[in-house]
Automatic annotation (TrEMBL):
Family: Belongs to the eukaryotic mitochondrial porin (TC 1.B.8.1) family.
Gene name as annotated: LOC107495735
Signal peptide: none
Xref: InterPro entries: Porin_dom_sf, Porin_Euk, Porin_Euk/Tom40
Subcellular location: Membrane
One Gene Ontology cellular component: mitochondrial outer membrane
Transmembrane annotation, as ranges: none
Keyword terms: Ion transport, Membrane, Porin, Transmembrane, Transmembrane beta strand, Transport
Gene3D superfamilies for this protein: Porin
Protein known as: Mitochondrial outer membrane protein porin 2 isoform X1
Amino acid sequence: MSSNKGPGFFSAIGSKARDVLTKDYNADHKLTISSSSNTGVDLSSTLLKSRGLSSGNVAALFKYKDKTEVHVKVDTESSVLTTFTISDILPSAKAIASIRVPDYNSGKLELQYLHDHVAFTTAFGFNRSPTIDFSATIGTPGIAFGAETSFSTAIGKLTKYNAGVCLKMPTSNASVILADKGDSMKVMYLHQLEKLNGGAVVGEISRRFSTNENTLTVGCSYVVDTQTVVKAKLNNHGNLGAVLQHELTDKSFLTISGAFETKALENSPKFGFSLLLKP
């Protein structure tokens, strides 16, 4: 199932601009060591310190004929998450099933369908009162309209409904997302610039109608060289963030992030660190 055709899934609306403004901005400390084999088995081990709490996990990914994947993750809380992915279970369709042991009510099944002019996903849990998620998108790779909703069978009501539109051009894209049951709206624009060596500038305006709160965020990414990318963002509330990512060796990355409150300099800045090693 190719992700390059059709309008894409609803979650992809505004994703490029969102990545520039949110991806890798965190105050966690993370170390991941992973390895791959020619037999289709990938192994990884992760240590994480977040908000003063430490955790870890060991994961294995098994691939079979490029169509079937089994992902098993064991964490320090003695839970085991197993995910089965089958691509092309039907033409242009994918099935994803997951369960976390010992919480047997966590079982979930998701179906994805991606075609030339339509894409949709549906997911539901394996319990007595599951929540049913559904999203659909229509259009082309250049323009797409979509919506998503969640229905709780426990209370018999819709608990989420969002809608969005995305316009993509060769060097830019714009999107509008109406979320939180119509209470909030985000307008995002991304433009790639040759002066940034393939980087981009992004602007986002978000508004929450119930509180009349507006937030303007601007950001950019700059490709220093083939191994180094720098990102920064600033909003009208004075929150400044920056990310430096450097490829140490092939597929091994060092990521450092920082966050500052320019209107409250007495507050301590926050720093994050991530190291991914793949021998």
